[in-house]
Amino acid sequence: MPESTRRLCYAIVRQPARSLLDACELTHLDRVAIDAAGIAREHAAYRDVLSAMGLSVTVLPAIEAHPDSVFMEDTAVVLDEVLVLTRPTRSREAEPAHLLADAGALGRPVARITAPGTLEGGDVLRVGRRLMVGLTTRTNAEGVAQLRAIAEPFGYTVESFAVGRSLHFKTACTALDEGFLLVNSEWVDAQALRAAGFDLLAVPSDEPFAANLLRVDDRVLINAAAPKTAALARDAWLARGHAPDALFDTPLIEFGKAEAGLTCLSLVYAAPAST
Hints:
Elements: E1 9-14, H1 20-23, H2 36-52, E2 56-60, E3 76-78, E4 83-85, H3 95-103, E5 110-112, E6 124-127, E7 130-135, H4 141-151, E8 157-162, H5 169-172, E9 173-177, E10 180-183, H6 190-195, E11 199-202, E12 214-216, E13 219-223, H7 227-239, E14 247-250, E15 267-270
Parallel strand pairs: 1-2, 4-5, 7-8, 10-11, 13-14
Antiparallel strand pairs: 1-15, 3-4, 6-7, 9-10, 12-13
């Protein structure tokens, strides 16, 4: 997409709570010490690179009562036509209400995932008008069904995929462009993704968390803390004819200790279609 036709895009981030350091929710990783200064540096660098990518960045205050509230992505799925407030894991169930209180409805009507459905934004990968949803410990079939009922009237298709040893679907699979996925094939069914019409690039086995990249239209942010995957993604990006100056990187090392990736730290969305 030429730069002149890029949509106006926004990112909402939240300052990390001090409580994140020793009380973040962990599913697959053992708890290790997280450096507070490192978290602050990484978050500042992340905000800076989002701005460099052309996004308008809003920074919300930390919520000490919710250690994982820095992971904004999980609180909502923002479609062009509707804001879908998710229903996260029990320890994070109040976070979507904080998003609504702090940022409003983002110029959209609001829909909600309700019990017994569970859904976290980290399990929802949007590729064009397709919503690819991972079935994980954080998202169940009822949550997928509710998202389908909300999104399909607006012309989206909603597909679900089994996920293995991965916190979220987007921990194991994200889109470099609309036909090409970066995947950890040990954690997600590569055959199912190929059957869905995608070409795949597998991350090296010694960088298992590196399949998470952040794509905004024709711009992509990759994790510089995974240098092998970053090099592979860069080569694939250029080979597919994309502009080299639309590829960005920033390292997430301390956040990685909290099972976080690039998409986790922000809620990225475009201006509503009517504006």
